[in-house]
Amino acid sequence: MKNSARVVIVGGGIMGASLLYHLAELGWTDIMLVEKDELTSGSTWHAAGQCPSITGSFNLAKMHAYSNQLYPRLEGMTGQYVSWHKSGGIRLATNERELAWLRYIHGYSKIIGFEMEIISPDEIRRINPFMTTDGVIAGAWTTQDGHADPSGICNALAIGAKQMGATIVRNNRVTGLTQLPSGEWDVATEQGVIRAEIVVNAAGCYARQVAQMAGVDIPVTNMEHHYLVTDPIQAFIDRDEEIPVMRCPYVSGYFRQEQNSGLIGIYENVEYKEAWAPKGMPEWESTSELFPDDLDRIAGWVERAIERMPVFGEVGIRRIVNGAIPHTPDGGPLLGPAAGLRNFWHCCGTSFGIAQGGGAGKYLAQWMVEGDSEINMVEFDPRRYGPFADEAYSRAKVFLDYRLTFTTRLPGEEEPDGRPQRTSPLYDRLAGMGAVYGETYGWERPKWFSLDGRPEESGYDRTNVFEVVADEVRAVAERVGVLDLTGFAKYDITGRDAEAFLNRICANRMPTKLGGIALVHPLSRGGRIQGEMTVTRFADDHFYCLSAAAAEQRDLDLMIQSRLPGEEVMITNVTEHRGVLVLSGPRSRDLLAKLTDADLSNEGFRWLSGQEIAVAGHKMRALRVSYVGELGWELHPEINDTASLYEAIWAAGQDLGIANYGLYAVNTMRIEKGYKAWGSELTNELTMIEADMRRFINFKKDEFVGKQATLDAPERPVRIIYGEMDADTVDPRGGEPILVGDRCIGMTTSGGYGHRVGKSLFFGAIDPAFADAGTRFDIQVQGERRPAMVLDQPAYDVDNAQMKA
């Protein structure tokens, strides 16, 4: 065994083998995969091997699509038997909410390029004559779906990687991980120590153990999942054509043909059970383990499968598989750097490993080798979880994710399981005033306020809270609104070299005046957008940085790991130490003047500046900025002063018509102002030029990370544009195709209805040939094409007169 490698991947299942293959394909061949037993001996070997195109995440669907392109080619490339069956797949819809979800996915199928068609029950029965369609209103027919032998795929990827120079060591258990001062790792194994520049945790069901060896934890819980194989079915024997893989919410599972037998897989949506009770984490010594079957537990759903496919009921059961599947709280894989560690990456946490494995390996390899992936990786970044994702939270969310596997979740739907984890001091107060909360990085943040007790009836159309949000927007535009944004990520950057440090890692120049505020963007070495921060200069050696709640750990890692040896810079995460209340609207100055002696005039407190002032007897940082396009201030008190500050603001605002508002209103107002959002328009897929953010680059600076790459970036067919769409009851929200004739020229990235301007607005990423103002095209929303047009300026307050008032 070699005693050193550039990369050591721990785990020889589908995820580890795929990453090994794709790293080698990109030219990294000094790489080693270490498996404690035989390849596939965790959860890969017993998987059912389905590869659907349909998934509720746009970027995850890209991974699925790539897997479905790669796997059919593997056998010819490597000589390893894969047994790819291009059977196609049909996902059934039994009600309008499920059909709306399928229509949304049908839209982005045109962007990604996988074949999908919404078909009738009659057509479903034509394709699968053994089906009953009672209660079915439609189906989504995806012709490029298939299934294959999971062990064959994994071994084919391993063989391909070895052919390109990679090394695989089997039957060699990792026993410890130690990071050296150099940043390298010593990987202790049963066969000796391997010195590695980078370690990747691809340990599947055992990923928590490997993470803990490195001194971190990850929210992965292993769940039991049953599938069964029937005796041979004569009707399948007599038929030349294989039936598609069927997926049915009524069954809460899938069923298909397995050679001449039937295969039924169940995700019971009432009862659930961890694979290794009570904490879902196996012993590191466990291998190739199955669990006793529990037919009583899944019997009701099996009966439903037989209702759908009566032919299954004509034969007996040949085999039952009850094995472990790792799940994360949101059901997405963990792909990216480990929180707080250098040179340690995760490639694990996928509950649909065969379907996602090919794409996960490809796009993670791109990130590791090239510094960026060609798809947006934010939703897969392991740092979307922090210390709030403790064991109790993980288990509650994983149980939920498992039982909702075949339950359609619509926009706006959030379940209470595992919550709350992080709350502002106003949580109970605002809940009593009707706040409906959403969760971001563990924080509970008000989405909207239900003043009459109504719940949201979620969907893709405008919902029953459309008018409520309109009222919140009206309050902000005409009077004054208050918003609790305590969940903002907040950092103090101090020290002699603080300014030079921030100038080096961000594209824009730091503010030079005391109190100045700048919007800045860290870039990767390849010039791609890594984040967005608002920076206020409070002293020559003190900068206050704010970023998105979801980016707290990601941005903290970026700054800490960008610090050079000898650089005198201190980076302090003060997120938990300061609250944030936002005052917005034309009466916000009048309200604030009741509570402070500070000069709030344009001369005394200019737009885009910050000061330390006293409000309602509390000293705090006040920033004159606005994300909603109205006069306003952000107030950043000490966290323990937040509640009393809110009460003072609420009391002082009564005669001014004060109202609470939430993030739904914020989103519609930011789109009216033409403000791009990190994670939607500003992603690792794009350069600042492609994102139409050139004005936030200061090329006069001597050097900053990504400067030369930005200057040298080749012309690519993508630009972020802003526009309006003709709409009646459905607005764009992101992920809808933009069409000219039969050609897909791009996609929306976010959107919504602008209540102040009475227009349906959107951002999009499109071919630059169609990016000029006035260009017209169509957007497909919920199966209908709607006319749309590129705008050359924000729909609301073009010259920022409202904010400067």
Task: List the main descriptive attributes of the protein structure presented here.
805 residues, FAD/NAD(P)-binding domain, 8-stranded mixed sheet, globular
What would your notes on this structure say?
With 805 residues, the chain is an alpha+beta fold. Among the domains are: 4-378, FAD/NAD(P)-binding domain (3-Layer(bba) Sandwich); 491-574 and 686-714, Alpha-Beta Plaits, CATH 3.30.70. It has 19 helices and 37 strands. The strands form seven sheets. Strands 1, 2, 8, 9, 10, 11, 17 and 18 form an eight-stranded mixed β-sheet that branches. β9 (174-179) and β10 form a beta hairpin. The longest helix has 21 residues, at 58-78.
Helix content: 25-40%
The SS-based structural class is alpha+beta
The main sheet comes to:
8 strands, mixed
Question: What name does the CATH topology of the domain at 4-378 carry?
Answer: FAD/NAD(P)-binding domain
Average pLDDT works out at 97
Q: What amount of the residues lies in strands?
A: 25-35%
Low-confidence stretches: none
Tell me how many strands there are: 37
The gross shape turns out to be globular
User: CATH architecture of the domain at 4-378, please?
Assistant: 3-Layer(bba) Sandwich
Number of H/I helices: 19
Which CATH class of the domain at 4-378 is shown? Alpha Beta
CATH superfamily of the domain at 4-378: FAD/NAD(P)-binding domain
Rg, rounded, reads 27 Å
Cα-to-Cα separation, first versus last residue:
71 Å
